[in-house]
Amino acid sequence: MRFVLFVAALLFAIPAHAQGVQQTKGNFEDKFRQLDEVLPDPSTTRNASGAPGHEYWQQKVDYKITAELDETKRRITARATIRYTNNSPDALPWLWLQLDQNIFKRDSMAELTDAFGGPGRRGPKVTLGSGSEPTKLSFEELRRQQAMADNQYGYDISAVRSLAGADLPHTIVGTLMRVDLPAPLAPGETTEFAIEWAFNIVEEDAVNARSGYEHFPDDPRKGGNDIFLLAQWFPRMVVYSDYEGWHNKEFLGRGEFTLEFGDYEVDLTVPSDHIIAATGTIQNPDAVLTAAQRQRLEAAKDAAAPMFIVTPQEAAAAEAGNPKGTKTWKFAATNVRDFAWASSRKFMWDAQGVKQPGAENETVLAMSFWPKEGGDLWKKYSTAAVVHTLKVYSRFSFDYPYPTAQSVNGPVGGMEYPMITFNGPRTTLNKDGTRTYSLAEKMFLVGVVIHEIGHIYFPMTVNSDERQWTWMDEGLNSFLDSVAGYEWDPNMPWTRSLPRDMVSYMVSNNQQPIMTQSDSVTDLGANAYGKPSAAYHLLRDTIIGRERFDFALKEYARRWKFKRPTPADFFRTMEEASGTDLDWFWRGWFYTTDHVDITLDSIYRLKMDSKNPDIDLPRRRAERAEEPEVVGIGLNEQQGLPIWVLENPGMTDFYDKNDEFTVTPKDRKGYTDFLEGLLPWERAAFDRAVKEDANYYVLNFTNKGGLVMPIILGLTFKDGSTEKLNIPAEIWRRNSREVAKLLVYPKGKELVQVVVDPDWETGDADLENNHYPRRIIPSRIEAFKDEASKSRVSRDLMGEAAGAEPDKKKK
């Protein structure tokens, strides 16, 4: 007994999240089991409802930075004073910083572990050959290799000192640096130190980075011009959190940036004719803008449409001129988690005020910066898309929290930072000097501006951990940008956001669970952007409903504004605020690679037996008469073969006039005895059922994909009417593989067709097994012409050597 009690005590001591539930007999699988063994236990910092706990804390980091851009050398030289406030309950003997530019060092972990031919950094790479097919190395990859070989990238850290001037011991570990403090930083205390650094700016088009410069050699200025997009440009403090301590995971390129909030004062010295867009607001407009530009900027706050701050004519004059000296732009930003900027003499700049009555920032300046290469595409759509984004996203979360929201054109396809985003689409220059753009470029611009500006809400404000869980911001933001996209123009062919868009990924062998760590994901776009977005559409439009989903999402945003949520906080908040148990949904959609494939195998139409032999037996006789005649009897008739009983009189008897369905007194007495044996309530229920003569339908379903999901039915009736029925996913709770459902309709309501998921809401992988009766599968056939072999032995080298040109119309 003592031993048993001891073992029991050990079992109870195991944390709930470490205990699994295992089926050891039979094949039952509980897909509605709670996530208790998966999610971390609630704590005083993160409670069971998904809200911050009463002892929630996070660190604060303030920066004062001075930096200079050397346009000729394409190099940044800078110095920062960092003020670190320890709000944690722990004493910290050292601090960790991120040195993200070190990812471009030739011996960085990212470079050394970049698998040949595998998924990894942004941009095209290689295609591995097989058999006689050669391996293909893209020109972009060749260019990248040459840029990495020709340049020395990464941080040059020249000093790490206390404010008193004493050197602080520091150790660089790849993209991280540990700074040892003279004494542990106690809870509630603050420390300050200075750091000096420089680095060569990468050419973004060559290296495929998240920031860098782009060169325009054909500009009218001698030597051309550059656009500089600067991000991950200064040593930033690593997060120290309640759930992980120091987040000292190497930057490998995929997992983005987890940062602390703080205040920034940044002085940026650039060529005198450059225009800067940056996180924060300009503190010295008199020193960097003309009087006319300052007047326009003020007028833009009340403008009904975007208006130019820097006009096309001013940008063209700067683009063609030669700068004299430098200017220093001063910016300040409060309660932001990062700082990014862009600088170029090529920039036009427009702005429009967005009103938020009662908000902390009642007027937000939506602004865009772009070169002439952006053309009318940018003039027409960039700032308009910023304005639209603020209005849609604020409806789902909170008032936009900052004074500016900026879209900047440059070499980066799309990246986000507090108050500023980098977006890539441009126009095409034609031979006649005009600029035009495709529908794809228009969609790209509107879509990427919505997406990147949306990121200022998630994760620049709701500060999720991008290094571990890309889906927490990219998935939620992809969902909201698709909502905003359909509200912008529902006729635009938006993609990669709805369940129907994710079918090919969800049935593929390359799929990974959404909860996979960011740097381990193979198909980041499908896994971290598309599949979570599809999940939220499914929750909003099908499972929870818009009102409750929107309420829950807004509550999540409100709770975690300027805080750091984890997946458990999101899952718990969505359940708690919507009043819906969703553990089955999170488990299936986020933790497995199951897909949706519900097949409708069969439908039985049932009629209630009246038990009255004078009714039921004639009906059974009529049903028998409707059965096909035995084939042989029909063939006998065709041959004219005689029938014995007809050819021989006297062979008939009782059974030639009465069949097995003939009603007898015994049948009638049995019916009377049955009725007399019923209790009053049973007799009433039975009589009503017989009188109504309803149609009973039993529908048999199989879950072939493994992912439990509501069964959505499109029902068509004989009278031409239709109905849509949503059966909750809980129908699978006792058997997740197969289930039957009874539907009852009045006598005159006869089913003629049933379609599972008729509006393609759930991303069902096989639409053909959704139809009952099965439909003829629609498809197409296309004629093609055989292509001649491209191998050298198949070519007419004799004719080519002689310069002959074959007549392709004749053999």
Automatic annotation (TrEMBL):
Pfam families: Peptidase_M1. InterPro entries: Peptidase_M1_aminopeptidases, Peptidase_M1_dom, Peptidase_M4/M1_CTD_sf. Residues 1-18 form the signal peptide. Residues 787-798 have a biased composition (Basic and acidic residues). Residues 387-589 form the Peptidase M1 membrane alanine aminopeptidase domain. It comes from the Bacteria. SUPFAM superfamilies: Metalloproteases ('zincins'), catalytic domain (SSF55486). The keyword Signal applies. Residues 114-133, 787-811 are annotated as: Disordered. Keywords: Signal. This is Peptidase M1 membrane alanine aminopeptidase domain-containing protein. It comes from Erythrobacter ramosus.
